[in-house]
Specification:
By secondary structure, the protein is α/β, with parallel strands linked by helices. The chain is built from 17 helices and ten strands. α2 packs antiparallel against α3. It is globular, with a radius of gyration of 21 Å.
Length: 393
């Protein structure tokens, strides 16, 4: 194999490489390079990815892109919560009441959501190798790729209810489209999905054996790539099909009928009660109920409200809405407390406010949707007008 361009410094937060294929085209490879934090997505990483993906999109020599994580444990376990925590503490100490004054959070969510949307609308095929842990912000990166690969060791989840956030990164849009109302269940319980369940939920496309990776890389280099994005997408599909294995149904599918009934209610309190009353001692289901019971009531309300709104929105509008909500979460929600309890003090005893679902009313959640800008000034107002836009999933 021949490198067409020198790889990045091994200390860089994202490693970029271009590999020359047999017919002269190149494959761009982007590797999240923070294995000690399970490749948690930082602001620097998101900026680097956005910049390089935009360059590759207009480079005629690049036929396709591979997005992967360093190490064997995770593709990406979520966002850089430590930096967000520090920014939220600084904001609280400042005494400001303007959610825009947390400049780090404003920048982080803006850059992250733009990157996620770029991947969703990329004009060239992107293969995301979703091996190992893929959570929160990791799903945000993976979900928009044209070819989303899972392995027998993949575990996907939106666990934000445990840290006082909600399934953002387009999660409101994605989970609303999971069959049989199961997206509500996933948002409220943070329940993990194996590869088969991820495919069932529409969050992945194909399952490959983890040990097929070396052979897959070799096959990509031997393939006949062209200048046509759609033709290259078809070529990539054909290559993946050579290595694909039948996905194994996981607990989401095992319990699909009961989940559909429990989450069909129109009121959040009825949904929560129905989930808690689901029969069976399956460890996956028992853990899901425990996570819901211990999670942030405010996060549950936010996730429920956002999925209902996302049913009427485009993907770009969903990102714009989530950006507003995320800034409010960083200003006065449970987000800072959830991170404190899980990662800072590690006492795992968050003091949620509101403390109960009964207090997390629709009236309580309403301020999270108030835009702090004048009409036409939303920082993500131009999503959907990018000249790089491809075909939205």
């Amino acid at each position: 194999m021949t490198d067409a361009a020198p790889p990045s410094s091994p200390e860089a937060p994202v490693l970029f490489e271009e590999r020359l294929t047999d017919n002269g085209k190149r494959i761009g490879i982007a590797t999240l390079n923070a294995p000690k934090t399970l490749n948690g997505l930082s602001l620097d990483m998101a900026r680097l990815l956005d910049e390089r993906l935009r360059a590759w999109a207009t480079d005629g020599a690049i036929a396709m892109v591979v997005l992967q994580g360093a190490g064997e444990k995770a593709f990406c376990a979520g966002g850089d919560l430590h930096s967000l925590y520090r920014s939220m503490r600084d904001y609280q100490a400042s005494g400001s009441t303007d959610v825009r004054d947390n400049t780090y959070a404003s920048d982080f969510f803006s850059v992250e959501y733009r990157l996620d949307y770029l991947i969703h609308t990329y004009p060239k095929p992107i293969l995301c190798w979703g091996h190992g842990i893929v959570m929160g912000g990791g799903i945000g990166l993976m979900a928009g790729a044209s070819h989303r690969v899972v392995t027998e060791r993949s575990r996907l989840a939106f666990p934000e209810i445990t840290i006082g956030l909600y399934p953002d990164v387009g999660g409101s849009f994605l989970l609303h489209r999971v069959p049989e109302n199961a997206g509500v269940f996933l948002a409220l319980t943070g329940a993990p999905l194996n590869g088969g369940d991820a495919i069932h939920a529409g969050l992945a496309d194909v399952q490959l054996p983890a040990d097929s990776r070396e052979a897959l890389d070799a096959a990509l280099l031997l393939s006949s790539w062209s200048d046509d994005g759609k033709a290259n997408a078809a070529t990539l599909t054909d290559v993946l099909d050579r290595f694909a294995v039948p996905p194994t149904a996981g607990p989401l599918q095992t319990h699909r009928a009961a989940i559909a009934v429990a989450c069909a209610h129109g009121a959040l309190d009825l949904v929560v009660a129905a989930i808690q009353a689901m029969p069976g001692d399956d460890p996956w289901l028992a853990t899901a109920r425990q996570t819901l019971d211990a999670g942030s009531p405010g996060s549950a309300r936010l996730a429920f409200a956002l999925q209902r709104r996302a049913g009427l929105l485009s993907l770009a509008d969903t990102f714009r809405l989530e950006y507003v909500v995320s800034l409010h979460c960083a200003a006065y929600g449970d987000f800072v407390e959830g991170i404190r309890a899980l990662l800072i003090d590690k006492d795992r005893t968050p003091r949620w406010r509101p403390a109960t679902l009964a207090d997390a009313t629709p009236a309580w959640v309403a301020p999270f949707f108030i835009e702090p800008w004048n009409a036409g000034e939303h920082p993500l107002r131009d999503l959907g007008t990018d000249t790089l836009r491809g075909t939205q999933r």
